[in-house]
Amino acid sequence: MIHIVFNTADIDILKKAFELDAFMQGDIIKISDDFAVGPLQDIYTPEGWEARKQWWRDVLATGDYEGKVDDGTVPDDLKVVQSLIEKLQNDPEEIAWIWAAQNKHDVSGYYWLMSQLKNFQGRIFILYLNNLPFINEKGNIFYPVNLFNIPPREFLKAKKLARPITTSEFEIDPDEWAKLCNENKGVRMLEGGKKLSQHDYDFYDAELKKFITPNWTTAHKIIGSFLHKAQHTTGDAYLLWRLKTILASGEYDVQGELKNMKDFEVKTKAAQPVTTE
What we know:
The mean pLDDT is 92. With 277 residues, this protein is an alpha/beta fold. The strands form 4 sheets. Strands 2-1-3-4-7 form a 5-stranded mixed beta sheet, sandwiched between helices. The protein folds into 2 domains: 2-180, Rossmann fold (3-Layer(aba) Sandwich), CATH 3.40.50; 205-268, Arc Repressor Mutant, subunit A. It contains 9 helices and 12 strands. Helix 8 packs across helix 9. The chain has helices at residues 8-20, 46-60, 77-90, 104-114, 155-158, 167-183, 205-209, 219-229, 236-247; strands at residues 2-5, 27-30, 96-101, 124-129, 134-135, 141-142, 163-164, 187-192, 195-199, 217-218, 252-256, 264-268.
């Protein structure tokens, strides 16, 4: 059995669940990219994939994660999927479980991945934790947004949700994903179920600006406040890129180097005195 997840923290929680249920034992594969942001056009061609990688290089340039695209610390998802396909081809009895919680990151990753696995219909299972209640560590009912929020013991219940991706899904979902790819937008949001909507790259800008105050504040604190308080959030690398883009307009005062999140501070511009002739 092969388990596929979309977050590093999901790996640790699954391993703990394995200790409680030997049936679930298996290899864990992680898809690293965040397909909820960035270009998707022609993503299954070498040119489209390289265009996406170049976009990430530009987003991460001069920031905390500069160079991560090419330094080998982040696995190439194309190679990860090719390895998965080879395992499925070499062992006709092998099956794969795709784990996805109800968030745009997991659902976008699901669409990108499953569109490449149609040849293994009947052996690819989905566990989509969509609006399903679980019991947290305090014994209260909650609806997890992320897989890693679920206590390990609750995975004994979650495994019962595993079902094969249907013939209909293998026909319809890739078509829906293709439409999203061709729209050439930069931000995807989960509307409910598996329905994704798309928005322009500046989708988070207006909310991000709300955390810039009249007092000098580091980019690190601005982004941290956004992540804790905003209704819709995304990765800090994307937010750092958007903050730098906002500051390029000259609407705000900046001190320090526009590099890492702790390297510069921002505040609203002081009111300029009115002069009369």
